[in-house]
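Dear colleagues,

As part of the handover before I leave the project, I'm documenting each prediction I ran so the next person doesn't have to rerun anything. This entry is a single chain, and its sequence is reproduced below.
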Amino acid sequence: MYSSHIEKIECCTQNQLHTLVALMQQLPEFDGRHDSEALISRLQHQSHLALLSFVEGEPAGFKLGYALDDSTFYSWLGGVLPDFRQLGLAKSMLLEQEAWAKAKGYNRIEVKTLNRFAPMLSMLVRCGYQVVELQPHDNSALNKITLRKSL
């Protein structure tokens, strides 16, 4: 059995943002468009939460979100490094994010993903998220899906 823990960060430091970017650069699903400056510009004036997941003390994944308004928390970016998948880390971070958002007074969480990320879609649906919008693309794998869950 492995030991794991999740670190909650409500206001990211430069060093923590660099850790998030380093994790993103190791995820095959990300295209490198999110650097520290992109994260800072998106988060600097927003209430936000970053979750860092560690396995045996090593960074293994992250989940990052911010307030869209007083009632909606947006789960923006997240992922688990390939070597640490199938350990339940993504679901643990999702549940941690939901509990935090509910405790902070948010009424719902919204997330967007692409059709090609089937494991993510499956997890979200199993956890009670419902599809509320579909933005079609010529390539159906690139359809953008918006899901929402009431807290």
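The helical segments are 14-26, 36-43, 89-103, 118-126. DSSP finds four helices and seven strands in the chain.

All the best with the project,
I.
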